[in-house]
Design goal:
The termini are far apart. 55% of the residues lie in helices and 0% in strands. By secondary structure, it is mainly alpha-helical. Helix 2 packs antiparallel against helix 3.
């Protein structure tokens, strides 16, 4: 399984997050939790997607130049 990795700016991440409401993101997360039960390949794919979602919502991964005093980085 191959995924494309790219560093996104804070603004780009905000744009991606705005594609869905919080309730929709929660539904996606819940569906992924169920999807991992279908096998090893599905678990790996769910982990890949879950990691990307984590990066979207975890302030640790936000651009430190945008919030230099936030303590997040």
């Amino acid at each position: 399984m191959q995924t494309m990795t790219q560093d996104f700016s804070f603004d780009q991440k905000q744009t991606i997050k705005s594609f869905f409401t919080q309730n929709e993101w929660d539904a996606i997360d819940s569906a992924l939790a169920d999807y991992q039960d279908y096998g090893q390949d599905e678990t790996e794919l769910m982990n890949s997607i879950g990691t990307k979602m984590y990066e979207l919502f975890n302030t640790k991964f936000q651009d430190e130049n945008r919030h230099p005093n936030s303590g997040a980085n």
